[in-house]
Design goal:
The chain is α/β, with parallel strands linked by helices. The protein is built from 15 helices and 15 strands. The chain has a four-stranded parallel beta sheet, with helices on both faces. Helix 10 packs across helix 12 and helix 10 crosses helix 13.
Length: 473
């Protein structure tokens, strides 16, 4: 089955056909390293990690690049606030970024290009735009002329007149058009700078991504991803300056995830609802955040609240508990399994349904519903007092299917956080062994007391001739 993705550029779902068969070149706008990244930033980092891993699972060779913006107005302001140089600020928060994405279970990108390491290439691209008449120099600043680029606004779907009236753009009388944006900024006192043909200065934000993405992935590549807030002006400007310089299509498919709100409101420090990912990770394991985002389609807005995150944690614990109970049942089988699993067609249909949902514009919400249907099938078997070989095989197949999908979902490692559950299982096994010995010695009053107390704690016990089995309610 073909993979279809919603392309922001064409405003429709399209079959994913890579430029080079079997290979995908993908770029994600990374962090501007001036602070710890917030929970809204975590959404694209997590979901595009899952999409990248899913494409690998589906057989593509994926080259994944995420940039680091390590020179920017915000970094310079932070350096002034902290009274350290900009490079120190960038290094501090770059290190924090890598620490936090590792905690989130995000696989490292193939490359992390940094803006400051690509200044010669940035200058060269700006020179090309100036030579082509698409950029102009004023007092050491270089601006891109949007009026001279055909189809400016094709990504955001607005024309230039609409953008003029609707965009928040810093007023600068030196510009030919208020929409023109900076490619190079002349140095101000106390700021870091590099030498250029136009004097000392530093690059604008938009040109950095064009240079880094094309240097790593080529002048035309397959997928460019990021948050919906980047469509205009950042991604719009990337297209203009990249295609203006090369005369080629810059990106085939543009993916954008929806916004994140906190308790129904836009996240804002002034509202007191601004949370860094680092803060959230002190309250919830990373796998809970991953499943929280998985349970909503990536293009939809998502509301972040304690109640909804708790629901995600409960859902995740249901999956983990089912896997644990399957393990217990399989451990207790103590025999070679052969033959065909019960519910074979049902399990295969759910597996195929999961893949079909993911192939349909990475519909993780629909895909997760198939996971919960598999969990439901498993729990129906686990309620039985006796299992057939076909039941054991079905449980084994359900577990294998969920584990297979976890290669890109990255949620089952949550079990490692449940040390108390592991200890609890061991204690339950010990108590059941003691109870079995009491029953063998016909000390029924004490064995019955152990059973009643375990039931009161939510442990169902089914006595069998060989040994009892149990499960959590």
């Amino acid at each position: 089955m073909a993979i279809k993705i919603f392309n922001t550029l064409t405003k429709q779902k399209e079959e994913l056909i890579p430029i080079e068969p079997g290979k995908i070149r993908m770029y994600l706008c990374g962090p501007t390293v001036y602070d710890f990244f917030h929970i809204g930033n975590a959404r694209p980092f997590i979901i595009y990690d899952i999409f990248r891993r899913y494409l690998s699972y589906r057989g593509f060779e994926v080259k994944f690049v995420m940039n680091i913006t390590d020179i920017d107005d915000k970094i310079i302001k932070k350096s002034a606030d902290e009274q350290v140089d900009a490079a120190t600020v960038a290094q501090k928060y770059s290190d924090a970024f890598f620490e936090d994405i590792k905690k989130l279970g995000i696989q490292p990108a193939d490359k992390y290009p940094r803006a400051t390491e690509n200044i010669p290439e940035i200058i060269a691209l700006i020179e090309k735009l100036v030579d082509k008449g698409l950029a102009y120099v004023v007092d050491g600043d270089v601006f891109f002329s949007v009026s001279d680029f055909q189809n400016y606004g094709k990504l955001s779907g607005k024309n230039i007149d609409q953008l003029k009236s609707g965009a928040r753009i810093e007023v600068d009388s030196r510009k030919k058009n208020p929409l023109d944006f900076a490619l190079w900024k002349t140095v101000k006192e106390g700021e870091p700078y590099w030498d250029s043909p136009w004097g000392r200065g530093r690059p604008g934000w938009h040109i950095e991504c064009s240079v880094m993405s094309m240097k790593c992935l080529g002048e035309t590549f397959d997928i460019h991803a990021g948050g919906a807030d980047l469509i205009f002006p950042h991604h719009e400007n990337e297209i203009a300056q990249s295609e203006g310089a090369t005369g080629k299509q810059f990106v085939r498919y543009w993916l954008h995830n929806g916004f994140l709100n906190i308790e129904g409101e836009k996240m804002s420090k002034s509202l007191g609802n601004f949370f860094t990912t680092r803060e959230i990770l002190t309250q919830y394991p990373a796998e809970v955040l991953r499943i929280f985002f998985l349970m909503k389609h990536y293009r939809s807005p998502v509301n972040f609240s304690e109640e909804l995150v708790q629901q995600a944690q409960n859902a995740l614990e249901r999956i983990i508990t089912t896997i644990s109970n399957i393990d217990v049942a399989l451990d207790q089988s103590q025999r070679e399994l052969s033959g065909e699993a019960a519910l074979t067609e049902s399990i295969d249909a759910l597996r195929d349904g999961f893949i079909a949902e993911m192939d349909d514009d990475f519909n993780t919400a629909g895909a997760m519903s198939k996971i919960f249907d598999l969990v439901k099938e498993a729990n129906l078997i686990l309620t039985k007092t006796q299992y057939s070989d076909a039941d054991y095989l079905a449980l084994q197949k359900i577990k294998e299917t969920i584990v297979e999908f976890d290669s890109f979902l990255g949620i089952l490692s949550y079990k490692q956080h449940q040390q108390t559950t592991i200890t609890e299982e061991a204690l339950i096994e010990i108590l059941l062994n003691v109870r079995s010995e009491l029953r063998r010695r016909k000390i029924f009053d004490l064995s019955d007391e152990i059973r009643e107390k375990l039931i009161a704690l939510g442990v169902e016990i089914h006595d069998r001739p060989d040994k009892p089995i149990w499960r959590k309610k």
